[in-house]
Amino acid sequence: METEFTPWASLAGGLLIGTASVLLMATLGRIYGATGIVAGVFFPETLRDWAWRAALLAGMAAAPGLFWALSGQMPAVQVPVGSGLMVLGGLLVGIGVTFGGGCTSGHGVCGMARLSIRSIVATATFMLFTGLTVYALRHLTA
Amino acid sequence: MRILSALLIGLVFGCGIVLSGMGNPAKVLNFFDLAGGWDPSLILVMGGALAVTYLGYRAVLRRPAPLLDRAFHLPKSRVIDARLLGGSAVFGIGWGITGFCPGGALPMLGTGNTGVLIFLAAMTAGILGARSAIRWLDRHGAKPAPFRH
């Protein structure tokens, strides 16, 4: 599946992601890590802790609807694999981010922005393995 | 106030994911496919997000406390161990198979796409299972020797 290079939309999207990370730190004093937010919704320590994470998730899930209201179309989601591989990949992502303590948002954006060595090592590791996996699936097994 | 702020901040993040293309697995995988039809868009997503967060954190973390809580909640761990490396590697393999990372997939829940639902259900099961496994490992003293820096 080919996709078009979208420099301006992607830069604008990146700036919004960064803005959300800064705002969450400025208001609630928290790292914007998608992994921790999902885990916190399922394992709440207190109701107060559960509520802001659930609200954050609701806000995130409202974005495609807003996009649809403004542009008249839903954002593109081109899924590359069937349900079986989706389940396997989803399990690996869930296990990996829990042991690794974060994902692209928590380590890749927030942690690297704090110049955390731990996050820089984690990000380099998962980017490398993502690239190797894509190469193996697309060019070695084709 | 905390809930309203979180709702709006989540919406800003979600709009960023939608606009940037991070919620579209095909686009994400094409970024990693240097040997195929390479789509460099994700460099701009990461670069833009990192630049804003780096500068914003410098300003925000200078304050004594956030606006709606008593203190900042910053991760204290500085350990680089087998869990960090192995977990990140496993996450990378899963990201390479599906094209979804947690932050990219969560906003796309709002599209109702079946692939997103399947991915998120499996990811949540993985998180729950791994948390139980970590608790078990900690109880049985199988904590790997950490490398501190």
In short:
The complex is a heterodimer of chains A (142) and B (149). Chain A is built from six helices and no strands. With 142 residues, chain A is mostly helical.
Describe it.
- The complex is a heterodimer of chains A (142) and B (149).
- With 142 residues, chain A is mostly helical.
- Chain A has helices at residues 7-27, 34-42, 47-71, 83-100, 104-113, 117-140.
- Chain A has one domain (7-140).
- Chain A has six helices and no strands.
- The longest helix of chain A is centred in the middle third of the chain and has 25 residues, at 47-71.
- Chain A starts with 6 loop residues before the first helix and ends with a helix.
- Chain B has 149 residues and is mostly helical.
- Chain B starts with a helix and ends in a 10-residue tail after the last helix.
- The interface between A and B is large, with 113 and 114 residues.
Walk me through the topology.
The complex is a heterodimer of chains A (142) and B (149).
Chain A: H1 7-27, H2 34-42, H3 47-71, H4 83-100, H5 104-113, H6 117-140
Helix pairs in contact in A: 2-3, 5-6
Chain B: H1 2-20, H2 25-32, H3 41-60, H4 82-98, H5 102-108, H6 114-139
Helix pairs in contact in B: 1-5, 5-6
> Any idea how many domains of chain B?
1
Please tell me what the overall shape of chain B is: globular
Pattern of helices and strands of chain B: HHHHHH
Query: For the report, how would you describe the main beta sheet of chain B?
Result: none
Strand content of chain B: under 5%
Helix and strand element order of chain A: HHHHHH
Which consecutive residue ranges of chain A, at least 5 long each, have pLDDT under 50? none
The class by helix and strand makeup of chain A works out as mainly alpha
Would you count the extended β strands of chain B for me? Answer: 0
pLDDT averaged over residues of chain A: 94
Largest interface: A-B, 113 and 114 residues
Task: Please state roughly what percent of the residues of chain A sit in beta strands, choosing from under 5%, 5-15%, 15-25%, 25-35%, 35-45% or over 45%.
Answer: under 5%
Mean pLDDT of chain B: 93
DSSP summary: helix tally of chain B: 6
Largest sheet of chain A: none
pLDDT < 50 stretches of chain B: none
- The chain-level structural class of chain B is mainly alpha
The oligomeric status of these chains comes to heterodimer
Radius of gyration of chain A: 17 Å
Report the end-to-end length of chain B measured between terminal Cα atoms.
39 Å
